[in-house]
From TrEMBL:
Coiled coil: none
SMART domains: Lactamase_B (SM00849)
Top-level taxonomy: Bacteria, Bacillati, Bacillota, Bacilli, Lactobacillales
Record's signal peptide: none
Source organism: Dellaglioa algida DSM 15638
Xref: InterPro entries: Metallo-B-lactamas, RibonucZ/Hydroxyglut_hydro, WalJ/YycJ, WalJ/YycJ-like
Xref: Pfam families: Lactamase_B
Metallo-beta-lactamase domain residues: 18-196
Official protein name in the record: Beta-lactamase domain containing protein
Length: 269
């Protein structure tokens, strides 16, 4: 028997360069952010955390890249989800997501807030090589959760928007030396390292220092490259940076790893 509470609950169903899906739950809504895996895999991950994908009513898409939008059309058609993205993202993914019933397609403009009953969702733009990439901050019952990956840097404007959240899913995409020494073509390395690429472990750690506050209790390290990073390396880099700033990791707050194929346990904020 499920105990009814007035809490926001989250699980990072998958995070990485191969696919990204996050689950957010309030008493009145069950929401996914991004659908970068197959519909079958997402349904399986939902089962792993004790939830049914048929109960999800809303999908928010951050941008059109396949590792974030792959199953958007499938989820809308098969599970009757309302799908939200900004207009340029809709245009960019129109040819890859297939036909979506017009009543299921919704515009979520960048920099706006949409209220879904007991859940306020705020969108904010990031710097990435997509049509109009935006991520989201969720507010419920005086708690907040921020998702921020796929950005080359974190602007002061974004820092101000997402400061002092209760929990973050934050990008630590690559170790700079692993990327430089690895087998990627130089053009791809330049793209990843650029202002419209991805945050390195060091950049992610530094940005976290600028946004964490007294409310912050949970940090999930996300979107790790399978070729240019390791969980242990990302975790060590972030925790070392925090300790340099005299932050009590494991006491005042906790840092969690994510996985491209295994969901984090459902946690209450």
């Amino acid at each position: 028997m499920n105990e009814e509470t007035d809490d926001m609950k989250i699980s990072i169903l998958a995070s990485g360069s191969a696919g990204n899906v996050t689950y957010i739950e309030t008493p009145k809504h069950k929401v996914l952010v991004d659908a970068g895996l197959s519909g079958k895999k997402i349904a399986s991950l939902m089962t792993d955390i004790g939830r049914d994908i048929n109960d999800v009513d809303t999908l928010l898409v951050t941008h059109e890249h396949t590792d974030h939008a792959k199953a958007a059309g499938i989820l809308a058609r098969k599970y009757d989800m309302n799908v939200y993205a900004n207009e340029l993202t809709w245009d960019a993914m129109a040819h890859t997501v297939g036909k979506i019933p017009v009543e299921k397609k919704h515009i979520f403009d960048m920099g706006k807030v949409i209220t879904f009953d007991d859940l306020d969702v705020e969108s904010f733009g990031v710097s990435h090589d997509a049509a109009a990439p935006q991520f989201y901050q969720f507010h419920h019952n005086n708690k907040s959760f921020v998702i921020l990956t796929d950005t080359g840097y974190v602007s002061e404007n974004v820092q101000g928007t997402i400061s002092d959240a209760d929990a973050y899913l934050f990008e630590c995409n690559h170790d700079i030396e692993m990327l430089r020494m690895g087998g990627y073509p130089w053009s791809l390395k330049q793209r990843i390292l650029g202002d419209k690429g991805h945050l390195s472990n060091e950049d992610g750690a530094d940005a976290l220092m600028n946004v964490m506050g007294n409310r912050t209790k949970k940090i999930f390290l996300g979107h790790l490259s399978k070729d240019n990073n390791m969980k242990e390396l990302a975790h060590l880099t972030v925790e070392s940076t925090m300790k340099e700033h005299d932050l009590a990791v494991g006491s005042d707050f906790n840092v969690f790893d994510t996985d491209p194929e295994k969901a984090t346990k459902l946690v209450i904020l």
